[in-house]
Amino acid sequence: MKIVIINGSARKGNTLAAINAFIKGASEKNKIEIIEPDKLNIAPCKGCGVCQCSKGCVDKDDTNPTIDKIAAADMILFATPVYWWGMSAQLKLVIDKCYCRGLQLKNKKVGTIVVGGSPVDSIQYELIDKQFDCMAKYLSWDMLFNKSYYATARDELEKNKDSMNELEGIGKNL
């Protein structure tokens, strides 16, 4: 299976630790590519709608090659830290630009990893999960998992062996 991971964090901290644990489990049987939005040149969606009449976004930036990778994947893993009770702007930017080829993202297998500085019973995780649930319903996604983790210090999640084993197991069982 071809898996594309969209890393919504610009830091090398807990979100990356979660991604790496998932990759450790999934890499044996799957082809994995990581998209790092903070390293791309992607303009925000203008809502012009021209993309619906052509083969993609009209912006001459990294949008179309990025969306090509996502559309070609069998599975998409969205990973994000919590910023102001929502997903990071880096991840949201890529999701917004998926509009240009939304129908090509139908029926994908999808997973989410959310890492925040509040306990996982906080409303912030529920808000992010609901946003992904709406996308999943609209695009007929097969939501394989939604995992949320609480970690404040930059290396806290990596030290949580239960969480790392859980993420590795999710990847291994795909």
From TrEMBL:
Transmembrane segments: none annotated. This is Flavodoxin family protein. Signal peptide: none annotated. PANTHER family: NAD(P)H-DEPENDENT FMN-CONTAINING OXIDOREDUCTASE YWQN-RELATED. InterPro entries: Flavoprotein-like_sf, FMN_Rdtase-like_dom, ISF_SsuE-like. Keywords: Flavoprotein, FMN. It holds the Pfam family FMN_red. Residues 1-120 form the NADPH-dependent FMN reductase-like domain.
